[in-house]
User: Which sequence fits this backbone?
């Protein structure tokens, strides 16, 4: 089927495009920026006039909330339009801490479960790429530190490559899946342990600095995040501290036939990005 990738420039979207390419599968990428690439369609969640052209001719949708989570009602309206225009399968990227009916993508999850004839929801744990491409990269490189409010809580970190492989498998499965999948890496680790793995790969000491939820939220605000977003993100660390992410599933292997990458292997592959 032809697949529309929303969030096509994001961590999982661009990796999904590579995997669909390798399979010879047709796809197009939704982007807010204009492009001469025939596989790119201009698309803006806040501009409904851009939706029909992006959807036209597609049979599968990789649905990724925009940064900050976006408006669940708008995404549900988009999914409804996609189904009306012939998109048979929708695969939603949600998060491990967001159940069906919960906030944000949880609302879209519940709508798909109740209304879509062919759907799957991917609920990954925290990305390994948060250390190599995301919010922790700069402090690792410049300070040798990772800041969190996770305490001794553990997370089964997962690589965006494994998420993209799971998305590709879900979008190209021969039969409807009609299911959600909590995606994790192969082991649950504390941020102290993650810092040690990164340090071993980088060849220098990396420290995990434990903050209170309030102190972490203040750091987020100082970095430019709105106070409400800062509180939400810091609160998610508190959930980790309470054990909400301390679990390992076999969902990646169920979908792809291969086990997920471990953090040590990821760190060895990414070591050069942490050079000071």
Assistant:
């Amino acid at each position: 089927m032809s697949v529309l990738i929303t969030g096509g420039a994001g961590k999982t979207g661009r990796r999904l495009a590579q995997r669909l390419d390798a399979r010879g599968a047709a796809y197009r990428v939704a982007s807010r920026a204009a492009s001469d690439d025939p596989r790119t369609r201009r698309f803006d969640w806040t501009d409904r006039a851009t939706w029909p052209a992006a959807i036209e001719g597609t049979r599968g949708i990789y649905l990724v909330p925009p940064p900050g989570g976006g408006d669940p009602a708008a995404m549900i309206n988009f999914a409804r339009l996609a189904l009306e225009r012939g998109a048979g399968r929708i695969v939603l990227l949600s998060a491990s801490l967001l159940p069906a009916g919960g906030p944000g993508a949880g609302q879209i999850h519940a709508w798909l479960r109740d209304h879509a004839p062919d759907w799957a929801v991917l609920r990954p744990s925290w990305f390994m790429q948060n250390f190599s491409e995301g919010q922790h990269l700069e402090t690792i490189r410049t300070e040798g530190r990772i800041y969190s409010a996770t305490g001794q809580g553990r997370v089964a970190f997962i690589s965006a490559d494994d998420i993209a492989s799971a998305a590709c498998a879900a979008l190209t499965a021969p039969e409807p899946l009609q299911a959600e999948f909590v995606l994790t890496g192969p082991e649950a680790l504390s941020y102290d342990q993650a810092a040690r793995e990164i340090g071993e790969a980088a060849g220098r000491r990396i420290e995990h600095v434990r903050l209170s939820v309030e102190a972490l939220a203040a750091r987020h605000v100082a970095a430019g995040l709105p106070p409400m977003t800062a509180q939400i993100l810091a609160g998610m660390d508190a959930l980790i501290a309470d054990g909400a992410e301390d679990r390992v599933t076999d969902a990646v292997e169920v979908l792809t036939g291969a086990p997920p990458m471990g953090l040590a292997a990821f760190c060895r592959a990414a070591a050069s990005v942490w050079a000071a």
Summary: The chain has a mean pLDDT of 94. The longest helix spans residues 227-241. The chain has two domains: 3-124, 126-158+184-246+259-276. The first strand starts at residue 3 and ends at 5.
